[in-house]
Design a protein that fits this description.
mainly alpha, 83 residues
């Protein structure tokens, strides 16, 4: 009986570790984007006239990062950009 209880507890520990790992990965992947969007929302509340420019700046930086990521992936996989 004791062994079965410990086995069930271990399953819960494994599930908790997997959920924690998924949360960490999500924060790493989306943390900067969410932070930038929160900054835009804060800027909109403080100074509505500059909110549009803040949002445009965030979009242009995201677009530049996306292009840099594409170039990096293509370089790693040896793909030509012309294809």
């Amino acid at each position: 009986m004791i062994k079965k209880k410990h086995a069930v507890m271990m399953e819960y520990v494994i599930i908790a570790v997997l959920i924690a790992a998924a949360v960490v990965v999500a924060v790493i992947m989306f943390g900067k984007t969410v932070s930038k969007e929160m900054n835009v929302a804060t800027e909109a509340m403080v100074n509505p006239s500059s909110a549009a420019s803040s949002q445009q700046d965030a979009r242009s930086k995201a677009s530049a990062n996306k292009e840099a990521a594409k170039k990096h992936v293509n370089a790693i996989h040896g793909m030509d950009e012309g294809k």
